[in-house]
């Protein structure tokens, strides 16, 4: 007993496989675009994070320089009612 498919069945099977392949290719393209977009966003966020670290470092150094010089800041002064 052989399990041979008719030409119509083979054509239907081939069309089904081609359809599945096209669907998978579409989703791979969609996923590739999403990954590329996330990579660009991550790069921007990393740049922003580096900029924020640098500014925080600068502010910290400025505060230390002010403390070293002995200058008082308004937020460090005790209100008169204390």
UniProtKB/TrEMBL annotation:
InterPro entries noted in UniProt: SlyX
Matches recorded under Pfam families: SlyX
Record field: compositional bias (Polar residues): 61-72
Region (Disordered) residue spans: 59-82
Top-level taxonomic group: Bacteria
Bias-annotated ranges (Basic and acidic residues): 73-82
Protein name: SlyX
């Amino acid at each position: 007993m052989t399990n041979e498919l008719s030409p119509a069945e083979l054509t239907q099977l081939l069309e089904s496989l081609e359809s599945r392949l096209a669907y998978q290719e579409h989703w791979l393209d969609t996923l590739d675009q999403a990954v590329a977009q996330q990579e660009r966003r991550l790069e921007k966020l990393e740049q922003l994070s580096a900029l924020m670290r640098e500014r925080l470092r600068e502010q910290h150094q400025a505060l230390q320089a002010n403390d070293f010089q002995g200058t008082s800041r308004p937020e460090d002064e005790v209100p008169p009612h204390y």
